[in-house]
Each structure stands twice: as structure tokens, then as C-alpha cells.
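Input/output pair, single chain:
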Amino acid sequence: TLLVAAIAACVVGNLPSISGAFLGGLALGILQAELAGFLPTDSVVANGLRPSLPFVVLFALLLIRQSVRSSKTVSDPLAGVDPPPDPPPADIRPAWMTNATRALVVVVGGFALCAWVFDDYWVGLITAGVCLAVVMLSIVVTTGVGGTISLCQCTFAAIGALATAQLAQHDVPVLIAMVGGAAVAAAVGAVLGFPVIRLPGIYAALATLAFALFFEGVLINLSWVSGGDVPLRVPRPTVFGASFLS
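Output:
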């Protein structure tokens, strides 16, 4: 939180200005102190807004600063040159065969270990690791393909999971709720991505980090998001009435 507050103050000075960062830090501290005196103490949003103010300020500044949006980019002088042709497929073994073989060995071996070797504790750790690995694979799309550094991928996963849980609470079948949760996460990502995609690399990273910390500090505490003090529970999914998970 202190690091993000410092970054927010530096963005006030557009990063290179020490005096601007100094004034931005003073203004941010005064605003936080004033909010403590004026905001109601019985509101979840109000209680979460004060510690999350640096995230909100940082995100807002990144979107409204004209100097940030108009940063010059260096174009590739070889962008119009065709790359060299690939070698003939007949001369090499297709990569998908090698990858498929390795993936099959890993998947079958992993299922065997989880079924007959590991106890519930290790199965839980492996399941959590696989889930996080799938979430982090989305960085290939955002950074590897899109060229934008995103630091809120786990936040989108949380949005999808919480939306799934909320739909399941309203008697929506779990598998259908999972599709709905993915749609909600995609919609939030589209709304967030529209302004962020226009920012240069370092500023896009800071904006997505600010959104992730704001979600964790404020939105996750709201009852209509996470259930509040009573965590949401999702029943096991079933296919044609049969459950394949114990």
C-alpha cells in the first residue's frame, strides 16, 4: 500500500519531477486525513475507500494525464520486411506431436499420483497450483500477444469465481453459472481494457495493479460481491445428474 501511494504521488509529477511528486504526496496525505473525518464509519465502502485512496488516485491519474496518453512510441523499422520462411514440414517432426506426448505423460502421471499416492492435503495443493497456472497462462494473451503488461489477472479470476458463486446462490446450475461468471469477468476486462490499452507499458502495469489492489481492498468486502462476512459456497457440478467430484 505504501509503495502504491508513493507511485501515485510520483505520477502527479509525471514520474520525472521530484517537486511534483513531493506536492502529490502531501496532497494525497491531506486527502486521506480529510476522508477519515468526513466519511461515515458504518459503511463498508467508506471504510475501504480511505486505505484504497492511493489506488483510486493512481488509476484516475493514469487515465486523465494527457502526457501519459500521448507518450511517443518507437516504431519497428523492419515492420514491413517479411520474415524468413519456415523450414519444410517434411524435414522436422511436428511440434504438436512432441507437445502432445509430453502433455499426455504429465496429465496421466498427475492423475495417477493424485488418485493413488497423494493424500487430500497434497491433492488440494496441486489443485490450487493448477488453477493458478491456468490463470497465469492468460499473461500469454495480454502480454505475449497484446503487448500490454497486466498485473490483475488473478483479479479477473476472482471476479469470474465470485460471479459464478452469486449465480449458484440463485439456483442457477453450476456449469451454466460458470459460463455466466466467465462472461462477467470478460465484460469487466473489456471495460477496464478499453482505457488501459491506450497507456504505454509501465503505465498500463501501474493501472492494472491499482485496479487489483482496489478490488482486494474495497470490492471484495461487499456482500453483493463476495457474500461479506458469510463466504459463498458453490455446490459440486453435476453432468446429467452424476457428480464426478468427491
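The chain has eleven helices and no strands. The chain has a mean pLDDT of 80.
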